[in-house]
Design goal:
Radius of gyration: 19 Å
Number of helices: 15
Mean pLDDT: 95
Strand order of the largest sheet: 3-2-1-4-5-6-7-8
Distance between the termini: 49 Å
Order of helices and strands: EHEHEHEHEHEHEHEHHHHHHHH
Low-confidence stretches: none
Shape: globular
Oligomer: single chain
Length: 339
Amino acid sequence: MSEIAVIGAGAWGTAISIVAGRNGTHRVRLWAHEREVCESVNTRHVNDLFLPEQTIPESVHATNDLAETLKNAEIVISVMPSNHCRRLFENMQPLLRAEMLFVSATKGLEDGSLARMTEVIAQVLSAKKKLPARIGAMSGPSFAKEVARGDPTAITIASEDAELAQTVQQALSDPRFRLYTNQDVVGVELGGSLKNVIAIAAGVCDGLGLGHNSVAALITRGLAEMTRLVVACGGKRETMSGLAGLGDLVLTCTGGLSRNRTVGVELGRGRQLPDIIAGMHGMVAEGVLTTSAAVGLAKTRRVEMPITEKMHAILHEGKSPREAIHELMTRSAKSETEL
């Protein structure tokens, strides 16, 4: 049996551990910050705090000890919130080995550095031990609850290391969870991060009582600005028409399980962001954390991202959601295909 470590026991991390553990060929260690999560996973085989009512295989063991989690691990999947990635990898670094394969399943950017998660991991790995950076990124349309209950799901594992991508593909794929390989790490990671910002905007439209026309236009133009930034950062345009781009964008902008869309809905209804976050009971909407970094990255690449900029103004500058939508609709006339 192979050993897989999953770092982060939120809803998505728990769902990944279920996938990894359900075929019986892997021993899975799930690192959880919360001791009550460890207790519920190990005694009742469910994560009562973040993914209730979804049975976790007995092959999954939860622990609060990083050393125990990483012992003998061949694949390390990081699923922590983006703002905790660097700190956790710095804590793990003395425990990491050169032969480990690292996969980031976090859909976000680091505020301040503007770095993608694989870049953060690579920086930490090379800082002291000079470990080779065998890293991939996993993303695509995937609500944790649906993955956990076994609904057919397809996502992407991206890496410049073809052997890593194929190893992860084989380790996690089953009849209910299909992984496609991709070499475009930049596109896959940015697609997974930026779509959360657009999903907040889609929620704002719903919260304001706007119809399907508005959301369809927003998804389409959101994809256009995501693509501009991906290409400017060295990613591939075609990645944005795939699972990690359009697929994840449509899901997150329209699905009722989307936390980012839910934040937007509540903003559109007039609630204040601190109150919305407080009501999420520890769940993370990555789009809130990513918006500032996305705006910063767009500025460094001289890319126009009007929807992202308006979401930043709503989230962090107190702009009225209705005023933001009005400003988007009254911008100067453009060509649809101009990039």
